[in-house]
Design a protein that fits this description.
By secondary structure, the chain is mainly β. Helix content is 0%, strand content 50%. The protein contains no helices and eleven strands.
Length: 122
């Protein structure tokens, strides 16, 4: 089945860490840029990071730069998002998506996962 599946979300205290995974199936994974996005209640979906098809290039939104790290393992058809120094404002549903454009605008991504919830709270 053509899909992206996120995992690894949960409840963490401020300052803690989580690693999200995005597993892909039924498409040529290393043909695509993969992006991570998040959406908090009442807010627009925000692009936070992306990684090129071969994994050599990455980009981050200012809101997560220096705290989050994106990586990919094309042999496992999986992209990861390591999130450190988490803050309450990082609380959101996190999504991964595939695209062909080097951008963090969600409209350029054509296949989305179902999302995983991240809650940062003491």
């Amino acid at each position: 089945q053509l899909q992206l599946v996120e995992s690894g979300g949960g409840l963490v205290q401020p300052g803690g860490s989580l690693r999200l995974s995005c597993a892909a199936s039924e498409f040529t994974f290393d043909d695509y840029i993969i992006g991570w996005f998040r959406q908090a209640p009442g807010k627009e979906r925000e692009g936070i990071s992306s990684i090129s098809s071969g994994g050599r290039s990455t980009r981050y939104a200012d809101s997560v730069k220096g705290r989050f790290t994106i990586s990919r393992d094309n042999a496992k058809n999986t992209v990861y998002l390591q999130m450190n120094s988490l803050k309450p404002e990082d609380t959101a549903t996190y999504y991964c998506a595939r695209g062909k454009m080097w951008t963090l605008y969600p409209q350029w991504y054509d296949l989305w996962g179902q999302g995983t919830q991240v809650t940062v709270s003491s």
